[in-house]
């Protein structure tokens, strides 16, 4: 493929139209910038920078177009993907249709106002990274050869961007939305002269969006990620396609409580409440019988948003939940009938004395045996 500048000349002046085209070997147009920006200047040039950014630059050094502002299926280090702006819009990556076909496929990647990163298959979510939880570095990935790629969210005048940076001296790296819908982080291997995949999502079958059904979760701490039911729930079917259901229904006003689930990827479809304390967040959920769970995060140290904290509450089903295996999850406070807690506490009260009694009996027997042999 080749890219060209379209020039329009007249006896008095030369107009440079920053309208770039890409052709295939047959001369058919595959892609265009569709900028339609015209400037009365000469010497405009298309320049590929060391960063990988293709810019259209005027003689005075002004860049009037750059590829970093128009991503296709790839993000390079120090390139930004706009998650939201003042108009609540975002920029999307769009996957190729096939390895040799750069036309758009059904898969796209973007963000939302809660700083969730999602991959869509047409209009249906395919994979999701949970909402911002108070960690400045959103994620960090390290390849086998050592390079580290960090993912952060930055605020530029009220517009939010996802950016990637790499460690000094690292090999060339990039993130791509593969034509299969996979998000892949790649590092260049100078020995094999190929791209090595050192991170990809979805990572397992139950890592895909809502694959464990309502009130089910993907347990990524297992050797093989497995669907399980949240505490107080049981599977509706054998394959989790229908998710899980409560073992005992909650009756409003008859006493219920919350248990803490550690290291969780928070579910989707939440109500986002800004600037609440932890106790206020808990109260938002506990006073509403329809609230099934809540999660809280302190955002004051991030400097990314004006919000000091983030309270998420869920009304109804919990979908796309995961127990993370990387230690980067957060606490999810799940509502359960108080009797469930009482049963566990009662069982523990019974089990501990029984175990203590058995231990004493074993010690007495050992002493008696040793004396008999002596």
Average per-residue pLDDT, rounded, comes to 81
- CATH class term of the largest domain: Mainly Beta
> How many structural domains?
3
What order do the strands of the largest sheet run in, or round the barrel if closed?
21-20-28-24-29-26-27-25
What is the CATH architecture descriptor of the largest domain? Orthogonal Prism
Structural features, described:
The model is unreliable at 1-16 and 341-348 (pLDDT under 50). Strand 5 and strand 6 (54-57) form a beta hairpin. Helix content is 12%, strand content 45%. It has an eight-stranded mixed sheet. Strands 1, 2, 3 and 4 form a four-stranded antiparallel sheet that branches. It has a four-stranded antiparallel sheet with strand order 8-17-18-19, with no helix packed on it. It has helices spanning 278-286, 338-373; strands at 3-9, 14-23, 29-32, 38-39, 45-48, 54-57, 63-66, 74-75, 80-84, 93-98, 101-111, 117-121, 124-129, 137-142, 148-156, 159-166, 173-177, 183-189, 194-201, 216-219, 226-229, 233-235, 244-246, 256-265, 271-274, 291-298, 309-315, 321-323, 330-337. The longest helix is centred in the last third of the chain and has 36 residues, at 338-373. The chain is built from two helices and 29 strands. It has 374 residues and is mainly beta. The protein folds into three domains: 1-69, Orthogonal Prism (Agglutinin, subunit A); 71-202, Orthogonal Prism (Agglutinin, subunit A), CATH 2.90.10; 217-339, no CATH class. Its EC number is 2.7.11.1. Keywords: Disulfide bond, Membrane, Receptor, Signal, Transmembrane, Transmembrane helix. It is a single-pass type I membrane protein. One of its GO terms (biological process) is response to other organism.
